Amino acid sequence: MGRTAGPDTSLETRGMIQLHNYYCNKYKLIMNNSEELISFKTKQRLEELLQDLGVHTFEIKVTAGTTNGENFLGIIAKVKVTGKDIQGDDVIRNFVIKSAPLNKMIRSILPINIAYQREAYMYNVVLPEFNRLQTEKNILKPFMSFAKHYKSFLYDQEEAIILEDMQSHGFYSVINQKESINYEHAVFILKEYGKFHALSFAMRLHKPDLFEEIAKNTQERYFQNFKKNFRDENYKNYSLKAFASLDCVKDKELYDRYSKFHDRIDKIAVQMTDSDFTNSYNVVRHGDCWIKNFLFKYQNDEYCVTPKEICFLDWQMACFGSPALDLSYFIFSNTDKNLRDKYYDKLLEEYHDSFRSFLKEFGGDADKQFSFDMLKAQMKKYGIYGLIWSTIILFVCTNNSDDIPNIELSSNPDDIFSMQSSDLNHLQRYQSRIRDVITDLIYLGLSNKCKVSDGPFEKTCHT
């Protein structure tokens, strides 16, 4: 649509790219080629950090930290360091290093530097200030569900963040991302979101000037600076994939309402994330709430059913906004219809009970600051945000890794923003789950009244 043609994207060429991606990913893991995972300058900075930590005469082993499609804004490396401390005793350190992609095409479209600046700000300022407030108020079980941060480097095209490898402490990711999560995981995450969101209300209560500064510094910038034509095309492409799950005759009501939503998805998406630091219900949000951004420690490691601890990953999309944006993204992108039919109300209650009890420890009052009725109203207003993200996240989660582009090797934007699937089973899984999301949004009466009138789901509001 007005763009100059990119490189050859014939079936043969795409096949060669996929084959190249496969062998690149395979040999990164087997050969531990650290130069592909962390740059020479990042390695130098890691060595300086090790000196500061008192680790000497060390050996560094680097392996890939993710498989293809698990992180589009970073190259994730797991780094194991073995060495000696100043007394000559053995030392082992485990890090995760997230480095920004260097692909010029990607960086010309996506505001990579803004994403890394935001994550660094969260680790350097927001989370430490939240922790300081919890210490000052003698909170017995504080929110500490994030990795230890060592260093952030924000040099242009050399952005990198060094964190502690939480998997070395017994944390695991959900193994099968193609399946929706169970109730135990869903409620555990939502309770922790309740604590995290309560911290914003607590800081607004006790340190209003500092909170206002943080709110201003966490305004949504990533999507505002995403190159507009590609951003809007991205929303439209995934929305079309969701549209294909509906039959214009059998699903006429769903089809007609989704059609209105699809026509304005780009505008709705931007307006939903428009931060307002004067809104007394808004909080610092996690932002990127798909299941791969959580690690769990379990009561019984063998079965991995009931988590006992959690670690939030990836704060690049963190921004100021309604708590309902995190909740709707998480619930509709990670749970299935069966769970929502049984437990949707219960999940919101568990979230708010956690929010209420944690805020009370700071002397706050949830009934006055953010009542359960207000939460339900916010979910009606912002719930459609969950559909926007579900069109994307469910397509990625249910896809095969071979069909997910490697952003470092891509030279054509269509490889990123028009992700395809060669697997009929995947398409069936995706269409079944996204159709369920659309159905639930209509049944629950969630609307897109956020600055956009005559929303597609407004006519069937349920109280």
From TrEMBL:
InterPro entries noted in UniProt: CHK_kinase-like, EcKL, Kinase-like_dom_sf
Gene3D superfamilies: 3.90.1200.10
Pfam families according to UniProt: EcKL (PF02958)
Limits of the CHK kinase-like domain: 161-361
Residue ranges the record marks as coiled coil: none
Superkingdom of source: Eukaryota
PANTHER family named among the record's database cross-references: PROTEIN KINASE-LIKE DOMAIN-CONTAINING
Name under which the protein is recorded: CHK kinase-like domain-containing protein
Species this chain originates from: Aquatica leii
